[in-house]
Amino acid sequence: MDNSHDTMENSHEALNNVENGVSKCLMNKELSKGRTPQNVSSSILRKKSDPALVSKVRFNMLRQFLANLQQVILGTKLAVLFPAVPLAIAADFYNFGRPWIFALSLLGLAPLAERVSFLTEQIAYFTGPTVGGLLNATCGNATELIIALFALHENKIHVVKYSLLGSILSNLLLVLGTSLLCGGLANIKKEQRYDRKQADVNSLLLLLGLLCHLLPLMFRYASGESGGIGISTAESNLQLSRASSVVMLIAYIAYIFFQLKTHRELFESPDEEDEEDEEKAVIGFWGAFIWLVGMTIIIALLSEYVVGTIEAASDSWGISVSFISIILLPIVGNAAEHAGSIIFAFKNKLDISLGVALGSASQISMFVVPLSVVVAWAMGIDMDLDFSLLETGCLAFTIIVTAFTLQDGTSHYMKGVILFLCYIVIGACFFVQKVPLDQTNVNLGVEQSSGVL
Questions:
Q1: Is the dihedral of CA 313, 315, 318, 320 positive or negative?
Q2: Is residue 351 a contact partner of residue 190, using CB atoms and an 8 Å limit?
Q3: Fewer CB near the terminus (10 Å): N or C of the chain?
Q4: Containing H/E element for 5?
Q5: Phi-psi label, residue 297: left if phi above 0, alpha if psi -120 to 50, beta otherwise
Q6: Are the C-beta atoms of residues 255 and 205 closer than 8 Å to each other?
Q7: Residue 253 CB: number of other CB atoms within 10 A?
Q8: Interatomic CA distance for residues 399 and 379, integer angstroms
Q9: Residue scoring higher pLDDT (223 or 263)
Q10: Secondary structure percentages of the chain, helix, strand, coil, to 5
């Protein structure tokens, strides 16, 4: 009986390796070059530029500049959205309606986020896999981090919390749900399988992050029931949140070290040498670095527009700030890697799709959120990890549902349907929620006086 049981387990594992051989080899090849699943996912929306267009330019420096411009601006299928960037700047300069500035800035962020992924990948070709992987992991959610920093600068802590919460929910329910749904429908006659190693590690990180979010909330309610003094409770909650944020950052650093150094073999395969010829950098190191700095400055400018006009857009459109921050911002800001994740699921490469969704969610939860708390601490702003009862409850159920979904290493379209419908229900909840800002600030710890969330 034991021998037959071992034989069945070995055959099951062999079947798993055969069905996911292509995606694992692709993942291994990219990880060996320092690329993350987010980079691989975004690359699906890129297109090759024709060098003949600039080859006839006589001056070498001008030809090189035009070639780089062609690769950076025209090398993505989202290039059609680039006109939104100058239009947003012009709308702000000529004092157009603030909702127009918000909408144009939001559209302009989509191609810029994909181009940042492309440029960090180009730099990774020159820095080696470890430094490249660290750079890609750090810049993977640069748009969310920049928006959070500008919102902190304007003391809009509710926008910071809502936007980061929305990014986690979007990755775990919308991106992962649509990927499993589309992949299951495209491969409906066979059971899709994936490697559970990365999913297990990311699930543990998300659960640790959830604990750090739950503790301040439970501490506030426990102190209230015991008759604690409000100011003393708020101060203690703030100290707990800052200590928890430091722990979360330590855990994220350990995860990066785990993934890029000590346990890289968990993500590698001996079939790596049989891959086709490696891609080469299309932009030089300093060229990519200069373009990356320029793109980051433009993202910062558009992020400032988004943060400064979100309330005006909320009033004009009749939609709460919470819905815009939790639903609209993450969908538009990460459209490139989201679309790439779905396309890879269609091709039965679920390891990449899971790496995108879980990797981004873990990075937001364990890096961007605690970093925002630490930066706010340095700026003298009181931001804690208490996201209020409704928001924390949605986060908890999302992580638990996702962990249950991924526990057996197999997938079918019904799992995607459940995750997607969970996202629809949560979106509907925040769509109908219109709480006065001064009332919500009691939970979020923001000192504002008017408005509607």
A1: positive
A2: no
A3: N
A4: helix 2-19
A5: alpha
A6: yes
A7: 12
A8: 31
A9: 223
A10: 80, 0, 20
- Nearest 5°: phi and psi at 221? -70, -40
282 DSSP assignment:
S
Residue 418, Cβ neighbours under 10 Å: how many?
16
Q: What tokens were used for 114?
A: 């994909």
Please provide the size of the chain in residues: 453
pLDDT in tens, 194-223: 878 888 888 999 999 999 999 999 988 887
CB atoms within 10 A of CB 193: 22
Query: Does residue 228 have a pLDDT over 60?
Result: no
Cα(359)–Cα(37) distance, integer angstroms: 8
Cα end-to-end distance, the chain, whole Å: 61
Report the amino acid identity of residue 102. F
* φ/ψ (deg, to 5) at 452: -130, 135
CA 299/CA 321 separation, integer angstroms: 21
Whole-number Å distance between alpha carbons of 389 and 366 = 20
What is the per-residue burial (b if ≥16 Cβ within 10 Å, else e) of 429-451?
A: ebeeeebebeebbebbbbebeeb
- Residues forming beta bridges with residue 411, ordered by sequence position: 192
All residues at 6 or more sequence positions from 225 whose CB lies less than 8 Å from its CB, including other chains: none
The region that residue 229 occupies, defined by phi over 0 for left and psi between -120 and 50 for alpha, beta otherwise, is beta
Alpha carbon 405 to chain centroid, angstroms: 20
| Cβ-contact 236, 223 below 8 angstroms | yes
Q: Token pair for residue 58?
A: 């006589």
> How many CA atoms, within 13 angstroms, populate the side-chain half-sphere of residue 145?
19
Full-model pTM: 0.80
As to burial, measured by CB atoms within 10 angstroms (0-12 exposed, 13-18 middle, 19+ buried), residue 278 is exposed
Q: Is 362 left (phi over 0), alpha (psi -120 to 50) or beta?
A: alpha
Q: What is the pLDDT of residues 324-367, one digit of tens each?
A: 989 988 887 777 778 878 888 888 888 888 888 888 899 899 99
Nearest alpha-carbon partner for 114 in 165, 170, 44, 200: 44
